[in-house]
Amino acid sequence: EVQLVESGGGLVQPGGSLRLSCAASGFTFSSYSMYWVRQAPGKGLEWVSTIVSGGDTTYYADDSVKGRFTISRDDAKNTVYLQIHSLKPEDTAVYYCVRTNNNYDFAYWGQGTQVTVSS
User: Fold this and answer.
1) Tell me, what DSSP letter sits at residue 86?
2) pLDDT tens digits along 55-83
3) Residues 95/112, Cβ–Cβ less than 8 Å
4) Cβ(73)–Cβ(81) below 8 Å
5) % of the chain surpassing 70 pLDDT
6) CA-CA distance, 118 to 73, in Å (whole number)?
7) Read out DSSP for 2-44?
8) Contacts for 22-30: CB closer than 8 Å, 24+ residues apart
9) What are phi and psi of 90, to 5 degrees?
């Protein structure tokens, strides 16, 4: 059974940093690209970042996160990370770790970790 468990969220002041973690189990982690998706209060789901299998290639949503967000993975620990610097109030959201199925649908989701950026 695929399981994804996020951690590392919290309440942070603007300008602060957080590192989100997602521990995966139930599948061959190294074989899959992994994704971070977020949902801000009252808004829809927003793809944030992708790291492909092997970790050599990463993608980010747009200029609002590029340069501040860094996705990485540790295949020995079956864990994917999202490092966030210079946090802004608009980064406030629930952050989800996601894996696709064989049709490249976002099929497997963690429970999410809340990030709140506020002074």
Assistant:
1) S
2) 889 999 988 898 999 999 999 999 999 99
3) yes
4) yes
5) 100
6) 28
7) -EEEEE--EEE-TT--EEEEEEEESS-GGGS-EEEEEE-TTS-
8) 22/79, 22/80, 22/81, 22/82, 22/97, 22/110, 23/77, 23/78, 23/79, 24/78, 24/79, 24/80, 24/97, 24/99, 25/78, 26/1, 26/2, 27/2, 27/99, 29/75, 29/78, 30/54, 30/75
9) -75, -5
- Hey, what are 68's tokens? 């501040």
Neighbours of 103 (CB within 10 A): 6
pLDDT tens digit sequence for 32-53: 999 999 999 999 999 999 999 9
* Structure token pair of residue 43: 């808004």
Phi, psi torsion values for 101, nearest 5 degrees: -95, -170
Contact 111, 52 (CB under 8 A): no
